[in-house]
């Protein structure tokens, strides 16, 4: 039986599942700091303003490391790069739990940002190598779903675990604060998963001992030229592309508004609605869990609309709908009185954001060709500049003007993101001019 008649094996779905699990660990380690920020401030004598910088530090180093991480994946292989990154960011999460002061904590969070930067750019290239263009929306949505699920899971279980280990863990006769134990546990678990990832994953199906010839032949590009030879240096190519600038600024404004959910929401609930412990964790996690539905729907929508409406509309429409919903929901938050009303609106925000993510990944793969990883990394870099600015800008707005102004600022950011989305040409590869 030859590759044209043989039924493809299903190893790609195992690779996808292991990669999605990697994304879960990534986001658990990313968001756990927000849930324990008050404990850290108390134990390390850190001011609220200093804690805003701790929350922001991750995103700055994460942003600046995106493109280099994507390029290193091309040089050393996506499997090796992702396994190494997973091991290292888990190690530095563990180190965060041992920090003795502000400088050590900042250093550890900067290191987590640098090492997490290689995950999504290389995951985008991995998906491109394993899945054909018509099903990349689904595959992208599963990896992104892992990240969003991890964010929600981290928000839910972190305060519960902190409470569980508070006053129980002993080291050299001393009681260790629960937040330290939890960060060490998260880090150790991720280091173990890095070993599993390296064992299961390969860069391409034709390198995997478990695939057959039919599955190895699946990822051939269809309907768009993605393997053009490079004619210009990547930096000049990126800087000269209007589509890539629109793609990048769109992500900046999306994350400037969205990152409130993972950086400021726990403090908002505790300060305004007096929610603490498990109740705070539950409320904080709900937008993330509900938003995961957007990943499923967004992946299927972009694949379906690209067949029904054409390439450009199929990629852009999920983004436009998602941005409009997010802006409207944040405006509602500005006038909402109850914690549950705000959480319901923030569920709309996370659904709208996640509706757009699979299409954004697919755009990077469609226009980037063999540079899909660096292109996604470039856009992700700008997105995380937005996330880095979020706790600083929204923290300043909150102190000067109050929480309603924070929600209006976030709504405006999503409105700007919608405008940028309309400037993207998803059908024109970067190398074509």
Write up what this structure looks like.
There is one protein chain. The termini are far apart. The chain has a single domain, classed as MFS general substrate transporter like domains (Growth Hormone, Chain: A). It has 19 helices and two strands. By secondary structure, it is mostly helical. A two-stranded antiparallel ribbon has the order 1-2. Mean pLDDT is 85; it is low at 221-233.
Q: What attributes does this structure have?
A:
two-stranded antiparallel sheet; 433 residues; mainly alpha; 2 strands; Growth Hormone, Chain: A; 77% helix
The pLDDT mean sits at 85
Q: Write the CATH homologous superfamily.
A: MFS general substrate transporter like domains
Q: Note the beta-strand portion.
A: under 5%
Across the major sheet, the strand order is 1-2
SS field, number of helical segments: 19
Query: Can you give the helix content as a percent range?
Result: over 70%
Count the beta strands.
2
CATH uppermost class: Mainly Alpha
Q: Give Rg in angstroms.
A: 21 Å
Order of helices and strands: HHHHHHHHEEHHHHHHHHHHH
Q: Quickly count the domains.
A: 1
Ends distance: 42 Å
Q: How does the overall form come out from the CA principal axes? A: globular
């Amino acid at each position: 039986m030859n590759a044209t008649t043989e039924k493809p094996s299903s190893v790609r779905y195992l690779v996808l599942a292991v990669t999605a699990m990697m994304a879960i660990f990534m986001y658990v380690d990313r968001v756990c700091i927000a849930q324990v920020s008050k404990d850290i401030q108390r134990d390390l004598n850190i001011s609220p303003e200093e804690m805003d910088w701790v929350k922001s530090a991750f995103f700055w180093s994460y942003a600046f490391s995106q493109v280099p991480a994507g390029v290193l994946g091309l040089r050393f292989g996506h499997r090796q790069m992702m396994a190494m990154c997973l091991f290292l960011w888990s190690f530095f999460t563990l180190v965060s739990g041992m920090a003795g002061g502000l400088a050590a904590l900042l250093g550890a969070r900067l290191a987590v940002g640098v090492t997490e930067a290689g995950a999504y750019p290389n995951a985008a290239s991995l998906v491109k190598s394993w899945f054909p263009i018509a099903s990349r929306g689904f595959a992208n949505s599963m990896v992104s779903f892992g990240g969003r699920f991890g964010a929600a899971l981290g928000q839910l279980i972190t305060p519960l675990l902190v409470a569980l280990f508070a006053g129980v863990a002993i080291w050299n006769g001393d009681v260790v604060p629960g937040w330290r134990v939890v960060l060490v546990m998260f880090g150790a678990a991720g280091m173990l998963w890095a070993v599993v990832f390296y064992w299961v994953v390969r860069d391409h199906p034709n390198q995997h001992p478990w695939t057959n010839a039919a599955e190895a032949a699946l990822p051939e590009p269809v309907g768009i030229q993605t393997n053009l030879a490079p004619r210009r240096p990547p930096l000049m190519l990126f800087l000269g592309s209007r589509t890539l600038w629109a793609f990048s600024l769109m992500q900046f404004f999306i994350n400037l508004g969205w990152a409130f959910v993972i950086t400021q929401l726990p403090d908002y609930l505790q300060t305004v609605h007096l929610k603490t412990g498990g109740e705070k964790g539950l409320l904080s996690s709900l937008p993330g869990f509900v938003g995961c539905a957007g990943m499923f729907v967004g992946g299927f929508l972009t694949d379906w609309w690209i067949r029904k409406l054409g390439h450009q509309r199929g990629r852009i429409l999920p983004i436009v709908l998602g941005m409009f919903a997010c802006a409207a929901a944040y405006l509602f938050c500005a006038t909402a009185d109850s914690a549950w009303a705000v959480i319901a609106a923030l569920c709309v925000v996370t659904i709208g954001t996640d509706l757009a993510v699979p299409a954004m990944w697919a755009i990077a793969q469609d226009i980037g060709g063999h540079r899909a990883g660096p292109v996604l990394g470039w856009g992700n870099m700008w997105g995380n500049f937005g996330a880095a600015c979020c706790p600083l800008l929204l923290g300043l707005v909150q102190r000067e003007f109050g929480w309603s102004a924070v929600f209006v600022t976030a709504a405006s950011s999503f409105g700007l993101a919608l405008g940028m989305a309309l400037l993207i040409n998803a059908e024109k590869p970067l190398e074509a001019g």
